[in-house]
Design brief:
The structure is a single chain. The relative contact order is 0.13. Helices cover 55% and strands 7% of the residues. By secondary structure, the chain is of the alpha+beta class. The chain has helices at residues 14-26, 40-44, 66-77, 84-104, 112-137, 151-164, 180-190, 193-202, and strands at residues 5-9, 31-35, 54-56, 63-64. The chain has a four-stranded mixed sheet, with helices on one face. Glutathione (GSH) is lined by residues 14-15, 44, 51-53, 65-67, 98. Glutathione binds next to helix 1 and helix 3.
């Protein structure tokens, strides 16, 4: 291996896509390995923690956990604050997105009736509360820390985009619409020239 390799499932979503975007915005030339579902069971035990994404860098052991990958890329390429306290605030918000995934993720594997009930309960309680906490802790505008896109913004963008496409059954596309700072981060990432160039390349 002579260049970085990011391994994730073959979909432009979630933890893998935020890491791909970070590498692209950092200007890193990387192998973008996309795994088909059928190949995953045989690979799972070979990964550090049994999940994807995994980033491999020449001369290093494979690195797992999206936030660890994002912080590493962010530190190396100026997409994460140099100040340690400021960085910790960004990492707190990154964990907030992981908390959301931990709550909503299990509903993906539920049968229809259970899924409907679970998601309606999330719409009534957890999701607005999650968005309220995100909104309260966003430090700047249009991005989380102010004028510059950093890795935390990619995570917030991906969290909002999950629902705003209207493809998650029983969760309205407008679930976060009442949170202007959160929506501003989502929109600013969507409209960022580097992000647009990633999707232009993928098209
Ligand atoms: N804490 C890990 C979670 C990794 C994870 O659960 N990834 C999902 C995809 S987003 C996965 O690998 N699912 C397949 C499985 O767990 O077998 C991270 O932040 O990267």
């Amino acid at each position: 291996m002579n260049k970085p390799k990011l391994t994730y499932f073959d979909a432009p979503v979630s933890r893998g896509e935020e890491c791909r975007l970070a590498l692209h915005l950092a200007g890193v030339d990387f192998d973008d390995l996309r795994i088909k579902p059928a190949a995953w069971p045989a690979m799972k035990a070979q990964t550090p923690y049994g999940g994807l994404p995994v980033l491999e860098l020449p001369g290093h052991a494979p690195l797992a956990h999206a936030n660890a990958i994002l912080v590493l890329i962010g530190r190396r390429y100026g997409l994460h604050p140099a100040d340690d306290f400021e960085a910790a605030c960004h990492e707190g918000m990154m964990q907030h997105v992981e908390d959301l995934r931990a709550v909503v993720g299990p509903t993906l594997r539920m049968g229809d009736a259970e899924k409907k009930a679970a998601r309606e309960a999330l719409v009534a309680g957890y999701l607005p509360a999650w968005a309220g906490h995100a909104e309260k802790n966003i430090l700047g505008a249009p991005f989380f820390g102010g004028a510059t896109l950093q890795v935390v913004d990619l995570k917030l963008h991906m969290a909002v985009r999950w629902f705003s496409g209207g493809k998650v059954d029983h969760i309205p596309a407008t679930i976060f619409a009442g949170h202007p700072k959160l929506m501003a981060v989502h929109d600013a990432v969507r409209d960022h020239p580097g992000v647009k160039s990633w999707y232009a390349k993928a098209a």
